[in-house]
Amino acid sequence: MSFSYDVKNTISTLFPDGKAEADSELMGMVMYAKKASRDSIIFATDVASVSDVFSGLILATFDISAVPQIISMGEEKYQYKTLLSPDESRMVFNYFWHDGNMRIRPSMVKSDKQKSAFVRGAFMSCGYVNPPEKNYSIEFRFDNADIAVDFATFMADLFEMPKLTVRKGDQVAYYRSGNIVGDILSYIGAKSEAFAVMNTQAYKSIRNEQNRQTNFEVANISKQTSSSIEQIEAIEWLIKNKKFNKLSPQLRMTSKLRLNNSDLPLSELASLETPPVSKSQESKRLKQIVEFRKIIETKQ
Q1: Measured distance between the N- and C-terminal CA atoms of the chain, rounded to whole angstroms
Q2: Tens of pLDDT along 114-149?
């Protein structure tokens, strides 16, 4: 099963603490169901335990026995579709939106527990989250732009404003931050899955830091090697063309040190000077040798 399936299966085991939270969770499930209108409510999910939550809340709140249809999707995959009759749909719809305006009702998301229950219901209804080993992503899909904006505004007060886009005809509100994905999973009660995201995030951060350090070291080694080759070529050219003795005694000493220690970094080469010099001084001397070779070569 997928990571998103596991999250839904986990949060479906959480029981609302009283009627207020039950109403908040059910509002989230109904509002973002496959179809939600005054005359027709259809709730569909591929998680059996989520279907049980919906049926249980409908029964407890409205005394409606809502039995899902089980539809085979092949390869041992099933969809659980619960259809309410027109009369049942009107009863549920009017309970939440008696004015006909299907928006998040402030009276049902007053407390933090009610808000958490609402987001939990929304995720069970239309949410999806990537497994932590992939790119961090949690999203909610809607069939209506106004409902998507309403939900995004609500989430902005809890976390931050999600991004909004259109994908395959659906309105999608999503986050791509590992921190927020973990926070939302924890907020709706998927503690172990939230920990998995945060643990993976920490591992990726350490690995990326190690990669950056390795790349930095490789770049430095490459730079040192290129500089050393250029310096040795300049010294050998001066010797071959009998210009070596035109260097100052100090630069001739540095040249010999470089020829005899081609792999040493500047700091160690500088320590071999008599007397020892700083890394910057050694670098300056070697640059003078290279520049001297270029000047002589240009005059010839």
Answers
A1: 76
A2: 999 999 999 999 999 998 888 889 999 999 999 999
List the domain range (segments joined by +) for residue 167.
3-204
Residue 210 within a domain: no
Of these ranges, 30-34, 212-216, 251-255, the one predicted with the greatest mean pLDDT is 30-34
If you ran DSSP here, which 8-state letter would residue 140 be given?
E
DSSP 191-215: HHHHHHHHHHHHHHHHHHHHHHHHH
Give φ, ψ of 134 to 5 degrees: -95, -170
Q: Which of 158, 174, 204 is the last residue of a domain?
A: 204
Closest C-alpha among 194, 212, 209, 14 to residue 113? 14
Residue whose token pair is 């404003």: 161
Work out how many domains the chain is built from and give that number: 2
Judge if 60 and 187 occupy the same domain.
Answer: yes
> Residue 118 is part of a domain; what is its CATH number?
3.10.28.10
Hey, what are 201's tokens? 């995030």
The candidate with the shortest Cα–Cα distance to 47, out of 83, 113, 1, 92, is 1
**Measuring CA to CA, how many Å separate 5 from each of 8, 10, 45, 55, 142?**
5, 9, 10, 18, 19
